[in-house]
Every structure is written in structure tokens, then in C-alpha cells.
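Duplicate of #3305? Posting structure anyway:
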């Protein structure tokens, strides 16, 4: 078996291996090829810096990397690792990483990172054996918004470029897919809640499926949270929220108070290279 990049591997072959690897996973994975093509493009995936293990010409395991400069470091973010069921137990992921890390170093990558479901003990132990360490704890939510309508909410829709990113709090707490660099070309609407003629809060949402990439208040109080989620409810009654950092106590307190279901918890792990 050999390791090489995925640069010249047909997308269909990658997807067939991906879906077979994630069959019966902890959460149900989408199966639409176009969904992943768009998602991985937004995540800045580079197939020349993504890697697969091949048995003859058959892809049997993979690590798919998004590459971007964030917080002063060039990071390779693992947006998907998988191994075909019949090849598990052979330390395939560890072998791929051994090859990948040396190649990434030559490309001046300074850190590898990934997300893993906290209940996936086998994967966590595998990543720790490679040298990854836990650095963030995330919580994911979904459900119907139960808050009562509190009256007219002044919503102002703007563009990505009109967002004053330097003044928006907690940007360093967002995960890879929810980071401003990843959402820029996604199917999102950017909406401010206006109170007394100034922005009080904001949210970034895919209104077709209720996915909230970012949301926060700009002044911390209960009323601003109430108005924020009343505004969100005006766009979508049901929401899905991935990877809320567990250090954001007020945000988590509010999400729990409005009855959203905590569906899964994840770690972010990192490896300096």
C-alpha cells in the first residue's frame, strides 16, 4: 500500500471512499456529492495537500485538508479523515499523517488541526498517538426556536463586505467552517438587529436550511439576546448550530434556555509541525 496526494484522484472516487468510511457514523452524513464539492471549496480544500492510502489503485483511506492562514499561522485543517471498514485496525490514518506532515512542512505549513466527536474514543486515541492535543471544546445544537415573539424587530440585511469584522466579538472562537474566511463564498445572508438606530447584534444564516454560521450580541444583556433570536426566528423557525466554544458561557446559557437540543460535542485538536 502507498500514500500519495489526492490531486489527480477523481472526485467520485474520493466521495465513494468517503461515504463508505462514514457509514454508520455517530451522526448521519449527507450523501449529495455537490454538497461536499461546495463545502470543501468554501473550506479551502487543496487536493494537492490532501492525502490518500491506496491498495494498488484503490483509495482505501484519506485525509482531506483545507489550507489557510489564520491568526498568523498557515494551517492544514483536516476536514475529513476516513478508512474503509475492511482496512481498519491497520493504523492507516497514522501512516497517512506520517507522510503528510513531512510534505506539509515543505509547503511551510505550521500547524495541523481537526475536529473529532468527543464520543469517538478510538479516533481521539489515534490522533493523540500522532501528537495532536485537545485545544477547544465545542457543542452543537439544533431544534425549533421556542421564544415568543417580542414585537417588531428591526432587521437590516447587509453584505459580507459591509460587515465590520474588526468590531465583531469572539471571532477567534469560531471553528474552521464558521470562520469568516470559510463562509465568505457560502450561501449565507448577513443580518443585523438594529436597536435605537445602531446594530445591537447580528447573525449569519443559510435561510434554506436554518444553519447559523455565526451569531452574537454586540452589547451583552438578556434583552439583546431575546431580540437576536426573535430576529433569527423571523428568518427560520428551526436552526442548526455547529461548534459553539464552551468558553462562551452567556451564549451557551441562552441556547440551553430556549430549548435547543445539544446534539453532539466535539474537540478541536492541533499539532504544531
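Output from current build:
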Amino acid at each position: 500500500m502507498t500514500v500519495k496526494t489526492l490531486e489527480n484522484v477523481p472526485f467520485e472516487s474520493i466521495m465513494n471512499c468517503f461515504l463508505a468510511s462514514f457509514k454508520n457514523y455517530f451522526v448521519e452524513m449527507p450523501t449529495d456529492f455537490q454538497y461536499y464539492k461546495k463545502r470543501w471549496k468554501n473550506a479551502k480544500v487543496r487536493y494537492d495537500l490532501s492525502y490518500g492510502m491506496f491498495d494498488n489503485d484503490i483509495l482505501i483511506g484519506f485525509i482531506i485538508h483545507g489550507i489557510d492562514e489564520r491568526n498568523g499561522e498557515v494551517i492544514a485543517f483536516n476536514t475529513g479523515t476516513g478508512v474503509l471498514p475492511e482496512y481498519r485496525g491497520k493504523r492507516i490514518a497514522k501512516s497517512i499523517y506520517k507522510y503528510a506532515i513531512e510534505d506539509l512542512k515543505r509547503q511551510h505549513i505550521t500547524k495541523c488541526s481537526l475536529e473529532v466527536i468527543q464520543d469517538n474514543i478510538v479516533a481521539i486515541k489515534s490522533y493523540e498517538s500522532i501528537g495532536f492535543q485537545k485545544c477547544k471544546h465545542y457543542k452543537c445544537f439544533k431544534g425549533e426556536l421556542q421564544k415568543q415573539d417580542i414585537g417588531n424587530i428591526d432587521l437590516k440585511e447587509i453584505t459580507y463586505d459591509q460587515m465590520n469584522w474588526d468590531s465583531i466579538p469572539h471571532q477567534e472562537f469560531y471553528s474552521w467552517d464558521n470562520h469568516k474566511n470559510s463562509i465568505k463564498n457560502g450561501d449565507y445572508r448577513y443580518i443585523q438587529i438594529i436597536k435605537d438606530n445602531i446594530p445591537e447584534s447580528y447573525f449569519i444564516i443559510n435561510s434554506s436550511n436554518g444553519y447559523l454560521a455565526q451569531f452574537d450580541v454586540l452589547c451583552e444583556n438578556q434583552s439583546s439576546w431575546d431580540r437576536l433570536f426573535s430576529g433569527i426566528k423571523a428568518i427560520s423557525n428551526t436552526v442548526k448550530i455547529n461548534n459553539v466554544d464552551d468558553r462562551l458561557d452567556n451564549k451557551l446559557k441562552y441556547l440551553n434556555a430556549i430549548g435547543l437540543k445539544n446534539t453532539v460535542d466535539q474537540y478541536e485538536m492541533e499539532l504544531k509541525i
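Confirmed duplicate; merging threads. The chain has a mean pLDDT of 95. The two ends are 25 Å apart (CA to CA).
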